[in-house]
Design a protein that fits this description.
This protein is an alpha+beta fold. The protein has five helices and four strands; from the N terminus they run αααβαβββα. Strands 2-1-3-4 form a four-stranded mixed sheet. It is found in: Membrane.
Length: 130
């Protein structure tokens, strides 16, 4: 199976996730997997899923978002995240050892707005200046 075929199958899965009603999505994916098995493509399943993440990210800006903070997110902030990255898998982690702030991971990018992260940045800048 060539790379562009893997990309095409990934696009089919993303399109299904957008258009098929939630109550029929399991059935649609089952049909897709059966079709893929008939074509001998099941051995490429992991590659198709990775490509699906790429297609999703390209279309919506992110596939996976993880927020680590000292306290649970407010409903308003969670709604803002969902609106900013529609359809992304948003995970929330509470780290009681954090002093404050948050660390946001969007796919492979990390935005460190934690107190510790800011202190480390300050230390780095002060070290450069002295």
């Amino acid at each position: 199976m060539r790379q562009y075929e893997i990309q095409q199958w990934a696009r089919v899965l993303v399109d299904m996730a957008e258009t098929v009603p939630d109550e029929r999505l399991d059935e649609a994916v089952s049909v897709f997997v059966s079709f893929l098995a008939e074509k001998g493509g099941l051995r490429y399943w992991r590659e198709i899923l990775r490509a699906m993440d790429h297609v999703w990210s390209h279309q919506y800006g992110a596939a996976h978002v993880t927020v680590t903070s000292a306290h649970p997110l407010s409903a308003k902030l969670r709604t803002t995240l969902e609106q900013t990255w529609p359809g992304a898998d948003i995970q929330e982690k509470v780290d009681s050892e954090m002093i404050g702030g948050a660390v946001l991971r969007v796919d492979d990018r990390i935005f460190d707005g934690s107190v510790l992260g800011r202190l480390q940045q300050m230390k780095k800048h002060l070290g450069v200046l002295s």
